[in-house]
Amino acid sequence: MSEAITSVLEENRSFEPPAGHQGYIPSLAAYEALKARFSDDFDGTWGDLAGQHLLWREPFTRVLNREKAPFFHWFEGGMLNVSENCLDRHVAAGLGKRTAIVWEGEAGQVRRISYTELLADVCRAANAMRELGIKAGDRVVIYMPMIPEAAVAMLACSRIGAIHSVVFGAFSSLALRDRIEDAGARLVITADGGSRRGAVYALKPNVDEALSEGCHTVRHVLLVRHGGNEVPTVPGRDIDWHQALNVQPAECEPLAVESEHPLFILYTSGSTGKPKGILHTTAGYLLWSRLTMCWSFDFNPAEDLFWCTADIGWITGHTYSVYGPLCCGGTTLMYEGVPTWPDAGRIWKICEDHAVSIFYTAPTAIRALIKAGDEWPAKYDLSSLRVLGTVGEPINPEAWMWYYRVIGKEKLPIVDTWWQTETGGHMIAPLPFATPTKPGSATLPLPGIDAAVVDEFGHTVIGDGGLLVLRQPWPSMLRGIWGDEKRYVDTYWRKFGSRYYFAGDGARIDEDGYFWIMGRVDDVLNVSGHRLGTMEIESALVSHHQVAEAAVVGRPDELKGEGICAFVVLKGEFTEGLAAALRAHVVSQIGAIARPDDIRFANSLPKTRSGKIMRRLLRDIAAGREITDDISTLEDQTVIEQLQQRV
Ligand code: 6R9
């Protein structure tokens, strides 16, 4: 068991929520009451919330249809539009002058975009996309830096019923091509380049490279000029974003779509080689993005400045940089650049300069900030902060305590939110002004969410570790894997006979009913809060001409949570510089986030008699731990020694 997990198991500190503020859900009693409403009338309660929180063009006639489970249908009969919910209704309510997006660039430039302006931009972009032939149901890939145009592009898709698929800007051209092809995208929206560590990196050439083979569905590329870097363009195919928008009217009637109309596809890693396109639909996703802003963050759109540091290439950026805050009519901050640039005080400087009140980041960022030293936050006035959130991986109690003490001055609630790309929004999280917190625990399921820890047979376990499941559907649940119904059923529902959603995480529930997430139980790594499949990296490695076989495992990493260790068997002789070449190869196949930290070579890989790679043994070797597996049956004992050598 890793040290982080052991210390989580021994953690027994508890902190009361801050007093003196009436939160959205103000007390544990109110939480219990809301939970009781769900137990008494599950469908009715969801229906009431959907009626109150969303703007409907046609009211829904049925809350939840379970007939085709695990393909659930929410809010049947209802018609609505996401961009209308995020923009028009706030403008209509007289909030047009309110800032929707505050954007800061790495060089310190600031843009403030009001709801009126954002609506006009989204309409122009929607009109421009229509003129390029994009219709409801068409897929649009967005490959962009963290700039407001990325949010405009997402909202513009939703305005005309197109399905967006955002691909993280650090993914390679090959990873981009796979996603464009799998989604069958008609349009790619990209930028010339973005900023990173004081320099401009190019994005557009990756799109050109991706489109140079296959991708026959793509008709056009919309190009945002942002980085100022020279990029080649293909006449007829590539269209300048600003030129295209400028000639369009600032009005575009939002297309009302059915509740279950697809809103977006987001690719994420699973335990097999091919990334899966997680499908989210309109009404349920939007409802939960708004409700969790209220419940987990106590978001007050009239006063708060909300900053979620996640890139829009991840689900956290979708739900909490764009849809959640905007659906509430509040202000969201976007920062484009490295959080420690030009120095480790940048994050805290942004918090001070813009008076950020709710701050949401990942444990890996917190650990990097701890390492930089307490003098950095000490330089800035952080008194505007009132809620601190974390997401993406288990937070070790030491990092939690630092966040609480040094940033929160022991006065602010720490909201540790457990959820996944598949869940659309938070599932387990404290209510900041109601739930007592324990360092390292995501605390309790949100109202309406039926989370449990079960054994292999689906029986509830209390006290011991088990598998984390969700026993009831929820509105923002994934509706499938794009183009692969079978994989959806097999991955999430097969294990417990279509009754429970299987999350792929291990967890434990303590005597107070608190959830302690213990990490993935499948072959998925969590590197700096980014999900990566071991098989994905293995297939990248074996696609190199010198590699015969490869196995990839995670190993504990102080900063990144998990590091990547690759064990490689070569086809021929070892050649000088091979480890570096293999690293570069993986980066070109997937992206920089998948670069192995450690590559080890051997004549063969340790396997069981049935031929399975002994992954637990490899994990022990990678972590430098004592070997607990029985290795007496291994044909070649020297392999272990070879694998223990670092190159
Ligand atoms: C939102 C997001 C999902 C996986 C998930 C789990 C891990 C996320 C966590 C957490 C412990 C938390 N995870 N939040 N583990 N505590 N608060 O991160 O989505 O990229 O799909 O990753 O991340 O292992 O299964 P995604």
Quick description:
This protein is of the alpha/beta class and 647 residues long. Among the domains are: 45-288, Rossmann fold; 528-644, 2-Layer Sandwich (GMP Synthetase, Chain A, domain 3). The protein is 33% helix and 23% strand.
Show the helix and strand layout.
Blueprint: H1 3-10, H2 28-40, H3 42-53, E1 62-65, E2 73-76, E3 79-80, H4 82-95, E4 99-105, E5 110-114, H5 115-131, E6 139-143, H6 148-160, E7 163-166, H7 173-183, E8 187-191, E9 193-196, E10 199-202, H8 204-211, E11 220-224, E12 238-240, H9 241-246, E13 257-258, E14 262-268, E15 276-281, H10 282-297, E16 305-308, H11 315-328, E17 331-336, H12 346-354, E18 358-361, H13 363-372, H14 375-378, E19 387-391, H15 397-407, E20 414-417, E21 451-454, E22 465-470, E23 480-481, H16 485-493, E24 501-509, E25 515-520, E26 524-527, E27 530-533, H17 534-542, E28 547-557, E29 561-570, H18 578-589, E30 598-602, H19 615-623, H20 638-644
Parallel strand pairs: 4-17, 6-7, 6-8, 8-11, 11-12, 16-17, 16-18, 18-19, 19-20, 29-30
Antiparallel strand pairs: 1-2, 3-13, 4-5, 9-10, 14-15, 15-23, 21-22, 22-24, 24-25, 26-27, 28-29
Helix pairs in contact: 2-3, 4-5, 4-6, 4-11, 5-6, 7-8, 10-11, 13-15
The structure holds ligand 6R9.
